[in-house]
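User: Some background: our group keeps a shared notebook of sequences we're curious about, and every so often someone picks one and asks for a predicted structure to add to the entry. Today it's my turn. The entry only has the sequence so far, pasted here. Could you supply the structure so I can complete it?
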Amino acid sequence: MHWFMTSLDELAEQPPRHMLLLYSGGVDGTYLLQRLRALGTTVTALHIRIGDRESSAAAAEQARKFGASFVDVDVTDRFFEEFAPAAVHADALYQDQFPVGSTLTRPLMARTAVQVARERGCDVIGHTATYMQNSSIRLSGSIAALAPELGVAAPFLGSDLPREAKLAALQEAGITFPEGIHSVDANPWARVIECGSLESPENRLDESVFRWTRDVADTPADPAELQLTFRQGLPVALDEEPIAFGDLVERLNVLAGEHGVGRSSGLEDTPFGVKNHEIREAPAATVIIKAHQVLANAVLTAQEHAVRGSIAREWTTTVVQGGWFSHLGESLARCLADLDRPLEGSVRLRLYRGAITVLGVTSENGLYYTRFGKAFHTSMSDYSYTPWLSLATLPSRLRRFGAPR
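Assistant: Of course. Here's the predicted structure to add to the notebook entry:
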């Protein structure tokens, strides 16, 4: 049976033999390293990079100060091979508002942690997410689904220790951190900012938090136009030049961000009913999802489009709530990829002052009638419309006038 430790007291009462700790080098993880050393727990600090090609020397040094072995893994390629494509197939927007972010990275981090934990002989995987972060269930749920034999330690769920107390304890050990007002979680698909003045949505938005996108007042006077080409629902070319998915995201983050595209502000639901305010930047994701939606509209039938939309929303909700590796999550993802098989074609877009304008769409599988020429109108002229109108209006006529005479 899988087991969980959700407070610092539980951790002290039953110290793990060997913990694999997901470690970014931040305050929470470093404080937990300090506590684990005092408990005599062997620790492997796992630093996972997604989009950052350089290892963190600072994180490695801090981990070793507390006697932990340090493992650094770059999973950027896996992110673009498996996780970001699933978000495109689903047009994955949180509550139809903004592109998901950590929803895509946490299951990948969990899977990597399970692999390293098994290699190192760990009995527990630990992380530092709190009850106000949906990452807690995304990490814990993914680990439980992939490795039921391993325990999960999430001690800051039940131990709400102030940041100031952690900083003071670390300062006594000779470790200091710059005082950051905001908490930032970034991967190539989205940059999420919270805390500080952003805690309350009632506060006026602090423009200084943005890094990837310009304010619309500072965007270029001339718009940018681009063409995205898709194969089986995934982007494969930019302006008719083949491009790898990761390179495309990097290019579009710069181009769309320069034109103010991809900013959003919203409230994320937590498992306990209250909402957490977050600011997001996702220029490339916003452009790609928009183009994908346009192509799907051109290619899929009305019924296919409706069913796909329902499945996409269900998948997005499932993975937001930690079910990436659940039977439902995996089944829905396969279905969405299969529904996207006919999505072949190109979409032309204009980026200007924070807005995306669709300039055109072309698809050999498109259902727009101009593809069929005069033959379509000829065939429709031979169609008998009276039976169709009679059947289509039958329910209304029956209910309003009784049985037809």
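Suggested note for the entry: The chain has a mean pLDDT of 92. Residues 102-120 form the longest helix (19 residues).
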